[in-house]
Amino acid sequence: MKFPSIFKLSATNKEAAVTKKDKRIISRVIKKQESITRRDIADWKTARLEATRAEEPRQHLLQVLYDEVMLDAKMTSQIGLRIDKSQAAAFSLKKGDKVDEESTKILQDSGLYDTFAEEIILANFYNHSLCEFSFDKGKPVVDIIPRKHVSPEDGKFYPDVYGDGEKYRDRPDFGTFILEFYPKKGDLGLLNKAVPYVLMKKFAMSCWSELCEIYGIPPRVMKTDTQDPTMLERAEHMMKEIGAAAWFIIDTTEDFEFAQSTSTNGDVYKNFISVCDEHISLLNLGAVIGQDTLNGNRSKEETSVRLLDAIVEADKRKIQFNFNQKIIPALESLGILPQGLRFEFAQAVDIDKLWKMVFEGSQYYTFDIEWLKDTFGMNITGMKSNEMPPELRGKVFDFFA
Fold first, then answer.
1. 194/327 Cα distance (integer angstroms)
2. Chain segment 215-247, per-residue pLDDT in tens
3. What's the half-sphere exposure (Cβ side, CA atoms, 13 Å) at 152?
4. Domain residue ranges in the chain
5. pTM of the predicted model, to two decimals?
6. Which pairing describes strands 139-144 and 129-136: parallel, antiparallel, or unpaired?
7. Are 306 and 290 in contact, with CB atoms under 8 Å apart?
8. Three-class SS state of 2
9. Which of 19, 22, 133, 305 has the smallest set of CB atoms within 10 Å of its CB?
């Protein structure tokens, strides 16, 4: 697919494109090495205060915490499910009532639709996505500005997360080369609501892992004369050689006992993790789908899937709105798409219900063969005759012959 080259832009945008090589936001980001430490609720509270303060709110700490949350397998899979369903939906670009096939193919083959659809949905979770256009050999490329460097509340970009910021909404290329998706001012996104459940879930899994270690490979104790270097060295060598379990050495005059606690097989951790997973599912999908295998049933799953479909339809409405209000005008001004286009998703159709209507109506009406092929994938070669062949007319057939 050949894309319009950058020299086809209008005079205003051509001048902006020439200067963008030195002024691109993404090229000014100063990366910092983040420490990998265990996060807890105190870190979450500190990050929230930093992101919601009245003057110079910054989201660096909060976005670092969000990155930790997105390492959770359930969060990743369920958010990915919503993104995949929206990316797989059929769409078209229309000029009036007619579909512009060439422009639709440009949007599909360039990968722009997949990129923007993902960022629009992720904006619901992070409550912000900032994208920047560039051109690579005439092909449009979209870069996502790291959210750690952006404060959407006051519209500032921070090249250094610890330095001074600058207003990106005042730039002349905002709305053309720079696009912003900011669903709700003052909110911190759905991930903010999921943080406590993910952190507590990770803590419970860590405790459960320690329980498995203690019950699976109990620690070993050895008594010896710790005042004798030879005996102590011999004991250490022996404990290292006979296994990988935890071990320790005490003196012959010392006693060691395990504290007696309530005997458990880990159900308390399993139940707690399940509760956290259920809350995460409610936040992401609106229902618990395919998770409760003990109490699950077909009717419950079908109802849950319908709830998910309703959420996906809402995602698609947001995608359609942002394409028509922000993305399509930007692509038109950059010369990537022609003027006067409108983005639309294909209307969702219940194939089973439609086939039932076609089947029942086929005895009274005729249907367009090409429409049947496109809608149901039927390989129709022609009409079937209801008349009996001439050579068989007048003959009597015996069913038991």
1. 30
2. 766 677 778 878 888 888 888 878 777 766 677
3. 24
4. 6-190+309-344, 192-294, 351-382
5. 0.73
6. antiparallel
7. no
8. coil
9. 22
- CA distances to 42, 63, 127, 156, 359 from 49, in Å: 11, 13, 16, 18, 62
- Strands annotated E in 70-165: 91-95, 98-99, 129-136, 139-144, 150-151, 156-157
Question: Taking the CB of residue 243, how many other CB atoms lie within 10 A of it?
Answer: 10
Token digits for 25?
A: 């936001």
Q: What is the DSSP string of 171-226?
A: STTBTTTEEEE--STT---HHHHHHHHHHHHHHHHHHHHHHHHHHHS--EEEEE-T
The CA distance from 177 to 13, in Å, is 9
Task: Read off the pLDDT of residues 49-88 as tens digits, 9 standing for 90 and up.
Answer: 988 888 888 888 899 899 888 998 888 988 998 999 998 8
Say how far apart CA 401 and CA 380 lie, in whole Å.
34
Q: What is the C-alpha separation between 15 and 132, in angstroms, rounded?
A: 17
Instruction: State the greatest distance between any 2 C-alpha atoms of the chain, in Å, as a whole number.
Output: 116
Query: How many other C-beta atoms can be found within 10 angstroms of the C-beta atom of residue 363?
Result: 6
